[in-house]
Write a structure and sequence with these properties.
This protein has about 80 residues and is an all-alpha fold. The protein is built from 5 helices and no strands. The radius of gyration is 12 Å and the shape is globular. The model has no long low-confidence stretch (mean pLDDT about 85).
């Protein structure tokens, strides 16, 4: 199954992440993911940034303070 072009990678992964208990359904998830993506010009870091920001309501604050968290999460992909 191919991902529709209008879906972000996070939206594509969201059902399985929610099923595994990693992603909670909240009104903060998509805005946080969008903001986290905008923080990085390297497209290879967009998905890790979105993923980490969606894990917890306060994760975006951590990413703002230490963007290296996203780089570390993307290492060895």
């Amino acid at each position: 199954m191919q991902k529709p072009k209008d879906m972000t990678a996070l939206q594509w992964l969201a059902p399985s992440m929610a099923r595994d208990g990693l992603l909670k359904n909240g009104d903060w998830v998509l805005p946080a993911a969008a903001e986290a993506e905008k923080m990085f010009s390297d497209t290879e870091l967009h998905l890790p940034a979105q993923f980490l920001s969606a894990l917890n309501r306060f994760a975006l604050d951590y990413i703002r303070q230490a963007p290296v968290l996203v780089v570390a999460a993307a290492h060895g992909r």
